[in-house]
């Protein structure tokens, strides 16, 4: 009888603990999460493997979209290296695979071969994406990002571009945006530890 009473008390305590836990505020991501996720406009770009890519290529995976270019001296290689290092931890938190699309904002200099070589260094999860400005600019702008277009006669130039990272869910919808932190004296990059934490919370709540 005493053992039964102890078991009943333990069960009541467990249920009470679960109820209390569920009633507590759950941690929320610091990233800007779109609620509901936003449908992406139809697009047609080129992947560094040479094939056309469209909205359908975003489905069935979590995709991190990042604007950059192979001649970028600071933000791009830093962000790509950070994402490469974070990839195992990101993939461990989601059932669907995690991919990275580096969207080149320098189509004049970034050929498919150049993008393939650059992205290949970071791993098979990385895809270089390009298009001419007529298709590229509306696509980037639709993501809530931006970049500058150099004058046609310029050959040696830098491209100003967003350093934020956009998250697309397995249904091919814009789900969140991870904004860069701006610290005096440092290049603006996304805090990768925070991105990993936020990604875990987003995956937790994803339906």
TrEMBL record:
Record-annotated disulphide pairs: 72-76
Key word Metal-binding present: yes
GO molecular function terms listed in the Swiss-Prot or TrEMBL record: metal ion binding
InterPro entries: SCO1/SenC, Thioredoxin-like_sf
Segment forming the signal sequence: none
Pfam families: SCO1-SenC
Protein name, entry field: SCO family protein
Keyword Disulfide bond tagged: yes
Similarity comment: Belongs to the SCO1/2 family.
Residues involved in Cu cation binding: 72, 76, 161
The organism's place on the tree of life at top rank: Bacteria
Keywords: Copper, Disulfide bond, Metal-binding
